[in-house]
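Shift notes (night). Ran PCZ2.2 while the centrifuge was going.
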Amino acid sequence: MFAFAGNIGFFFMPILCIIFCLNLISILKKVKKDEDTAVNTFWLTVSFTLIMWSIAIIGVGAF
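Came back to this:
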């Protein structure tokens, strides 16, 4: 479990952060124009959850 989370944290964290930032920017633009944000909100939530999960698992595995 720790090896899997460590790999996600090391290799996929930059990709997850880029996905998170792009979706956040897209949501902000869509809110300003009063458009639907459901798809972007889903991907923002998934990327944030994976980021936090991998940080938490790596932190627990460090002890």
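The mean pLDDT is 88. The chain has one domain: 12-57.
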